[in-house]
Amino acid sequence: MADASDPPESRTAAYTSLAAGPDFRHEIDIKRSRFITVLRRADNEDDARALAAGLRREFHDARHHCSAFVLGPDRDVQRSSDDGEPSGTAGIPMLEALLRRETASPGVTDLSDVSAVVVRYFGGILLGAGGLVRAYSESVSTALELAPLVQRRRLRMCAVRVPHAAAGRLENDLRGAGYVMAETGYEARSTVLRVALPDSPDALAEAAERLAAMSAGSAVFQPEGTAWIDVPLNR
User: Fold this and answer.
1) How far apart are CA 213 and CA 211, in angstroms?
2) pLDDT category of residue 13 using cuts at 50, 70 and 90
3) How open is the CA angle 200-13-213, to the nearest 5 degrees?
4) 154-232 maps to CATH 3.10.20.740
5) Which of 73, 119, 161, 212 lies in the 20 to 30 Å Cα band around 24?
6) What DSSP assignment string belongs to 162-214?
């Protein structure tokens, strides 16, 4: 999915995030305590904080609703809360689990725009400071192992207008060539296909040549703004 406007300038052109969609949930039991982890894709601090607020209402009888989130392509917004657990035993381990999560390949730690909340139901057995750190870290890490992730890339949007009758075939050809397709628009006499390309002159020139070959020279790209696009993550 593309954002409606150009993204703000950042030092990176790609990072990993949770796939857009319903919240992801995973639960583990440790010494009779229930640790329910909920992950949400969050585009800003309001979205991130809303997750904890909603879970406090849903799990109103739970003892703790600890949280952590990291936001932005450069991961420059990072927050955490112990929510009543001993200082440093919940929120910080959760945040570190987000920051240290390896994504596309070993050693790559670029996860962002993710809010995590761990709801704890106390089971009557004290875990101690070290046990709490391990439990909250494991809760988030395990959830991230199972959660659907995507790569977000800052790409150049290019539009191509073609007659309605030719749009389906051209779209299939573009997809078959490995191009990332964005939203399609419809006008009175034409279909507007949008392709997300690497934001470089060479990539634009190469794509223009391939489009010309696919369309016998009848279609051309019209560059638009840049946008963050979700693409599948190979892992």
Assistant:
1) 5
2) confident
3) 35
4) no
5) 73
6) E-HHHHHHHHHHHHHTTPEE---EE-SS-EEEEEEE-SSHHHHHHHHHHHHHH
**Are 196 and 1 within 8 A, CB to CB?**
no
CA dihedral 140, 145, 146, 152 (to 10 degrees): 100
**Six-digit token string for 215:** 């369309």
Question: pTM for the complete prediction?
Answer: 0.83
User: Quick one: the chain helix, strand, coil %, rounded to 5?
Assistant: 30, 35, 35
Q: What does the pLDDT average to over 175-195?
A: 94
CATH placement of domain 20-147: 3.30.230.30
Distance (Å, rounded) from C-alpha 74 to C-alpha 99?
A: 11
Query: Domain residues of the chain, as ranges?
Result: 20-147, 154-232
Least confident of 2-11, 75-84, 200-209: 2-11
Residue 115 has φ and ψ, to the nearest 5°, of -110, 135
